[in-house]
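Propose amino acids for all 116 sites.
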């Protein structure tokens, strides 16, 4: 009977330890996901803010200057598609006077491009 009591105590302690480790791992994962989600949210909001002020920052520059600056900064070649000049992950929308009116990210492709 003493052997069964020892085995039961050892198994109970092992169960408590493994459940404790599982709980700690789960809590660590939850906290990490929360911080990661907050970081992604802050970066997305910062990017939206920058995209919103980009036309004002580019005021006075020609289309060619803006496109060449974007190509140099991003290391990508530009191409035109459906009313926007695309450089890397950004679409640059110009009006008929070749002034930058909007910057659109690829994840919103088709939402902000004016009709042709």
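Proposal:
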């Amino acid at each position: 009977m003493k052997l069964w009591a020892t085995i039961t105590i050892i198994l109970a302690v092992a169960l408590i330890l493994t459940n404790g480790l599982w709980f700690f791992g789960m809590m660590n994962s939850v906290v990490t996901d929360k911080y990661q989600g907050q970081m992604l949210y802050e970066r997305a909001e910062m990017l939206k803010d920058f995209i919103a002020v980009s036309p004002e920052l580019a005021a006075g520059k020609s289309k060619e200057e803006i496109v060449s600056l974007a190509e140099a900064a991003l290391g990508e070649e530009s191409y035109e598609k459906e009313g926007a000049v695309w450089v890397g992950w950004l679409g640059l929308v110009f009006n008929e006077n070749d002034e930058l009116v909007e910057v659109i990210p690829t994840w919103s492709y088709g939402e902000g491009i004016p009709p042709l």
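The longest helix spans residues 2-57. Confidence is low (pLDDT under 50) at residues 112-116.
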